[in-house]
Amino acid sequence: MKKILITGAGSGLGRGTAFGLAHAGHQVIATTQIWPQVTDLRRQVADSALDGRMAVDKLDVLDELDVAAVADWDFDTFVSNAGIGEGGPLAEMPVDLIRRTFETNVFANLELTQRVVRKWVDEDTAGRILFVSSMGGMLTAYGLGAYCASKHALEAVAAALRDELASTGITVQTINPGAYDTGFNDRIGETTYHWQDDALHFNQEADIRAHFAEIMKGQHDPQDMIDKMVEIIGADTGKYRNVWPPSTEELIKQVQHDAWTRTV
Fold this sequence. Notes:
Distance between the termini: 52 Å
CATH architecture: 3-Layer(aba) Sandwich
Number of domains: 1
Strand order of the largest sheet: 3-2-1-4-5-6-7
CATH superfamily: NAD(P)-binding Rossmann-like Domain
Number of helices: 9
CATH topology: Rossmann fold
Radius of gyration: 19 Å
Mean pLDDT: 98
Number of strands: 7
């Protein structure tokens, strides 16, 4: 049995994985960004008869008080899953939106991870850190440049920590989901139209929507990824990088291979 802290459990893959891990017999601290999500999740926990295995609390990775509280929690596995996305063509996207994406997906997650690492080092705990990255951490897609860039940065953070922490017994892994139909990808696309203006931008809304419609086709059933995350997080050992489904892993390898011969 593992004692697992997971962020971003208010919705999507994080929520499903938190419940899956609890049902698998692990002790789970499921955290959410806002209080209404806490209330909703606690009700679902009570209805699922998981009160003894799943605690729910607020942990906004941008909130200093929330982050500080982690020092008092008991866990040996940290799943860094919280993340946001802003969409649109990178050539015209307001840079403040890109900064906001990096603040949550990179800087805040790194700061929280640093606190977790220090806690474990002080307690002599050989813990596990699992960063929920994305297929976007190893390739890019139209209109998702800011999100992909933040996940590329998270990949570098994970790799650096993996090597730095080897002597402490703390291990680091990444989980890289493909395109799953949780609504998250669609919401990233939708954020574009809060700033895009056909009168100001050379990328026109109709063209952007057509690109996104094509990208969003064929998203997978989230339960498939949830089951895989429960398997990876619940295992005692595993690969450093965990891309799922296999078709996404093959796509990433092909894109990276093609980059070596691509010309302009």
